[in-house]
Design brief:
This protein is about 45% helix and about 15% strand. It folds into two domains: about 5-285, TIM Barrel (Alpha-Beta Barrel), CATH 3.20.20; about 310-370, no CATH class. It has helices spanning about 25-40, 55-65, 90-100, 120-125, 130-135, 150-160, 185-195, 215-225, 230-240, 255-265, 270-285, 310-320, 325-335, 350-355, 360-370, and strands at about 10-15, 20, 25, 45, 75-80, 105-115, 140-150, 165-170, 200, 245-250. It contains 15 helices and ten strands.
Amino acid sequence: MGIDLTKMPKLGFGMMRLPQKDGAVDLARVCEMVDAYLAAGMNYFDTAYVYHGGMSERMVKEAITKRHPRESFMVATKLPAWCLRTKEDRDRVFNEQLERCGLDYFDFYLLHSVEDGGNGNTYERLDCYNWGLEKKAAGKIRHFGLSFHGSPAYLVQVLDAHPEIEFVQIQLNYADWENPVVCSGALYNILNERGIPMIIMEPVKGGTLASLRPDLEEKFKAVRPNASIASWALRYMGSLPGVMTILSGMSTEDQMQDNIQTFKNFEPLSDAEKALVEEVRDRMLDVPQIGCTACRYCTDGCPMRISIPDVFKAVNTIKLYNEQFRPQNFYNHLVNDGHGRAGDCVGCGQCEAVCPQHLPIIELLKEASGMLDR
C-alpha cells in the first residue's frame, strides 16, 4: 500500500553522518537518537548502500528494524550506479540491502546520484527504471524515485522520459540557490512546477550553515536569540511549497534535539525573516569557498588516504575567518592520525569521478597544499 506523500514528516533522519566511537559507528548512541526521533512523532530514515562503508544499512537493522514495529517507521535507500556492471547486479545489490536492513520491502527506493553522463547512462543502459517498476509491482518497493545531482536540462529529460518517478531528492539550501554548479533553485522550480514532491538533502550544506561568521550569526540572534543558526537553514527549506521531507545527517544527540525542536512545532519563515536569510546569504557568498558538502564519497577510494572534505574544511575556514592557527592545527591532527597530506595527491582522479558537486579536487588539493603543507 502506498504512502500519502503530502503527509510525510518534515524532518528526515539522514544516516550518512552517524556518531562514531573508536573508528566505528556507535550503535548505542544511534539507538538513543532513533528512539528520540521516533518519540517525537517522526519516522523517515534515509540510508544508502555506500554510507559508512555499508554499515549505515546495517545500523537500520540493529537500531530500528530489530527494536521497533515495522509499521512505525519508513526506510529509504538507494541503488548505486558505480556498483553495477550488469543487469544481474541490480538484484544482487537490492537483495543485499534487504538483508542488511532486515526488511522485506523498502518504503522508498531511489536511483542514487542521477546525473548527466556516467551514472545517468548506467541507469538507462541497465534499464533500472523499468526494473524499479517491477520491484514496486512485486511489493518490494512502495515508492520509486531519484536522488538527483545533474543539470536542470537533464532533470527535464529524465522526468519527460520517466513519468513513473514519484519523488525526487535534491540538494537544496539557501546558500546554493543560485550556485551555477549545483543549480538548486532551478531544480526546485522544475519539480515544483510539475508538482513532484521533493526530499531535500544538504539543507545545512554539510554543517556549513550551522556555524557562520560572527557578524552574520549576530543578525540571526538579534531576531531570535534562542534559536540555533542551523534552525534558520532548516526553516527556510521547510517554508518552501512542494518540500516533502528535509533530511538532516545528525551526528550528535544535541543536533537531534535541536532539529526536533525546530520541526515539532514548525513555524514557517515570515517575509521579514526570509529577507534576512537572503541578506545573510548574499554577504556570506562575498567570500569564495570550496563547495564541498562532506558527503565523503571521495575518501573511500583515495590511494593516499587524504581526508579530502576535512582538508577543504580547513581551507574554507582560513578563507572565511582570515585565521590560520586553528584550521592549521585541525589539518595537522588529520595528518598525525594517518591521513595523507594535500600535497600527497597523485592525481588519479578517483575522487573527481564520484564527487556530486563536480569539484576540481586535484587542483583544489594543490591549492590546499600551498596553504597547509608547512
